[in-house]
Amino acid sequence: MADSTTTIDDIEGELFRIERIREILVRRESELRYMMDDIQLCQEISRLKTELQKLLALPENQKSNEEKQREEELVQQIHKLVETRDFLVDDVEFERLR
C-alpha cells in the first residue's frame, strides 16, 4: 500500500523492477520448456534405439520382411528426432545469446 511519501519516481522504479522480474521469469519459462522438450526427445530416441538394437541382434537370415522394414523405419525415425533435437539445441543457443 502506498503512503503519502511515495513519489512518481518511486512508482516508476518499482514498475521497472517488476518488468525486469517479468522478463527474467519469461526467459526462465522458455528455458524450462526447451529442457522439457529435450528430455522428451532424448527419451523417445532412447526407446527407439532399444527397439532397433533388439532387431539388429537377430541374425540377418532369420529376420522377416516386416522386421527388416521396421529396422529401416526406426533408423528414419531416430534420424528425424536427432535432427529435431539439433534444431532445438540451436534455438536454445540463439535464445541464450539474445
TrEMBL record:
Pfam entry (one): bMERB_dom
Native source organism of the sequence: Chloebia gouldiae (Gouldian finch)
TM region positions: none
Matching SMART domains: DUF3585
Domain BMERB: start-end pairs: 1-98
Protein name: BMERB domain-containing protein
Matching PANTHER family: BMERB DOMAIN-CONTAINING PROTEIN (PTHR22704:SF2), BMERB DOMAIN-CONTAINING PROTEIN 1-RELATED (PTHR22704)
Protein origin, superkingdom: Eukaryota
InterPro entries named in the record: BMERB, bMERB_dom
